Amino acid sequence: MTTPEGQNGDTKCGLVAVIGAPNAGKSTLVNQLVGQKVAITSAKAQTTRARLMGIALEGAAQIILVDTPGIFEPKRRLDRAMVNAAWEGTQAADAVLLLVDPIKQRRHELMPLLDALKDRPERKILVLNKVDIAPKEKLLQLAQEFSALVDFSDVFFVSALTGDGVPELKAHLAMLMPDGPWHYPEDQVSDASERLLAAEVTREQLYKQLHDELPYDSAVRHEKYEQRKDGSVAIHQQIVIARDSQKGIVLGKGGSRLKAIGEAARKELADILGVKVHLYLHVKVDENWADKREIYEEMGLDWVR
């Protein structure tokens, strides 16, 4: 186990659960705290599915960030699995960080969340996002309102997008971490396998490039991951959609859309993995994919009724 130089093993390590309404900016904040991309971001709500962890370092402290799926009112099995994962992510945490988008707010999802947090024993921190564009008066008003509902130990104002206020938040989280050995090597930034990360990167490109054309009910499945003799990696993935009518949307004219998705994902994966990447994508229609246990297991979610 690598420990920070000059610390003589006098290290701190703890778990911080990052929760909030869908699309509050949780993944963007986790990426800022870690200092590089470990979770996918999208303008589409509920993009985080797997309970991916980011691992941030601050001095002698290792902060393990549980990037939970946005907590919302579950309607389908996949929704229930995601909400289940979110609450599981808060258990045994040394701190629970509630991130709020002061502009969208999504009060219909935020208020039940505040109500559920009220009686939880973990140390609770309120973080108001978008300090770069939200009026100061509104931020202060929300901080006051929410602090009256839940016993937050601290309130921070940040911009997950620009990084404003994030160093102060990170330093505070490091201070809260209990004494103990680091759980991960110094150079590890996530507990996600390269296979899961690769699938997440492709799924992010699906959202980015198809916007509202493709519904939320799509998945990217890992098929094969090969290390080649020349040091490059060959990754084979399957894009699963629920209806045959969606196939043309993903493929595009003459396969142009699928090619663009693959090229963008391939470039990003090459940057993340530090090697040349060959990415092979194909599209499969499966009306019942959201009811298959193995797909949930691949995404790191529990199978729920």
Keywords for this structure?
alpha/beta, ribosome biogenesis, membrane, GTPase Era, P-loop_NTPase, 9 helices, single chain, cell membrane, six-stranded mixed β-sheet
Please outline what is shown here.
It is found in: Cytoplasm; Cell membrane. The protein is of the alpha/beta class and 305 residues long.
Can you walk me through this structure?
This protein has 305 residues and is α/β, with parallel strands linked by helices. The chain is 34% helix and 21% strand. The protein is built from 9 helices and 9 strands. Mean pLDDT is 78; it is low at 40-50 and 70-79. It holds the Pfam family KH_2. It is a peripheral membrane protein.
What's the helix-strand series?
EHEEHEHEHEHHEEHHEH
| Overall spatial form | globular
Low-confidence spans: pLDDT under 50, at least 5 residues? 40-50, 70-79
Report the strand count: 9
Strand content: 15-25%
- Helicity level: 25-40%
First CA to last CA: what distance?
A: 40 Å
Largest sheet: 6 strands, mixed
- The average pLDDT is 78
Radius of gyration: 20 Å
User: Helix segment count?
Assistant: 9
**Secondary-structure class:** alpha/beta
Spatial order of the strands forming the largest sheet: 2-3-1-4-5-6
Family: Belongs to the TRAFAC class TrmE-Era-EngA-EngB-Septin-like GTPase superfamily. Era GTPase family.
Pfam family, one: MMR_HSR1
Region (G2): 46-50
Keywords: Cell membrane, Cytoplasm, GTP-binding, Membrane, Nucleotide-binding, Ribosome biogenesis, RNA-binding, rRNA-binding
